[in-house]
């Protein structure tokens, strides 16, 4: 991989040793003083690191005891409500859901499968109302082995019928549903006028530099500006002007055909296309067959902008944000009015990205946000051993991004984002997933879920462990000051390792949680994160099941004596991951997606849970859960 440092490098080896050794001693930092002043790095990377002997967490709840069974659990003093399940009606007149009988056309009117990213968009638009709003929820993929009787995950692509394939296409994408808080319980408005499904069959517009490019043209769309559908919608973001960004995270395995025979074989290979067609789409729909439509693949793996307040609006694929396995598109309104979007490319040895808009957003004129994401600079991150991080612009004509090197214009730079990042020597990371900004400190936290494929020769300062099965979280420190004063458009940041995950009782793992972390508090495989209004980090995990542990949600202080001290709030049922954590503006509700319950079963008849309804003869149902304190006070306080 490009820029993969050798383990023989004395600089990197020594820096890693110093960093890990120091963290083993200190187990975190107060980090009370800025590491950047006036754009220059000052002092030690570890300046101000310390811990109180017995830290007092600001998280006031009694920690949940970790239990892995057929249902979910929350800490004492908290209650949970199932808000929206797979198949719940989003239109009037639909019968009670029966997962054994649902048809594709009907699924287009019901809540989608495998819920992921959640955005709570208040109603009315423009308010900070916390008891009435829209839940905008990604529906990432389907689990055929627990949807269809007798089917295994491995044989689904070959055995699914056209009806099952079409059902799967209709169950993926995005769901918008109106919700209300009544008597302390969240409920959906089944016939809400803004309720909407966005699926693989929804027409979308392509905008930005890649719109109309030859590589975006197909037999169904000679203009290269109209796309049918979205899939693998994982994490996302929302904008100051009231739209939602949904991320397409790697559609390579839903295309059939032979990518090696395509004119763009090298590009398809760099994006992981192998013709596996795990849901059998290519058998029934030519656009998912690379032998027939090789350019259709280029029309996915983008960020899609949706206006949830206008059900007649057409979603837009914003190509200026680059093409990758998008995980997160977190929007920050910089102090100069420009919009910044942080993104991760969720695959082994891939990169972290940032987009900075060319124009500023006018808060007094929300319409100024329209098409703001079509013009700006996309950059990729390089982490250096001195604790600095540099954003490298992916701009055609600069450095190696020239026609001579395979980039004819800016459109090709974006269509070939991974190749462009390779060429600039970006730092290969351990599967970059969610990236979020602390609203109090202005610091940015980037999640690396894990990377079992990294060996000692590919260790680098920001990814310090070979065969990283546990994941870690990187802290980015923009210059300029605290909170709103942070300059998210700067070329250089400082950075640090916030936590290395895993069991701190096992010395071989090298975890660096706070020394007061309990046996229930440490976690592995961080995936999605969010912040509450007080600036506390909340981590949802994906992969704890591999360690015979439940995935769940943990609160973590990022400042003070308890910095890096996690506490377990919620655990998922068997086979499920926790994802998409999202707070209401007042912090009193934490919405969470419980994705793929019972998916670890080989076939439907072997599931260990029928969560959340536990009805004989029915199926497990991915769902959105609302977590609230019983006294109505903010979560975590």
From TrEMBL:
Regions crossing the membrane: none
InterPro entries xref list: PhoX, TAT_signal
Coiled coil ranges: none
Pfam families: PhoX
Signal peptide range in chain numbering: none
Top-rank taxon, per record: Bacteria
Protein name: PhoX family phosphatase
Organism: Mesorhizobium caraganae
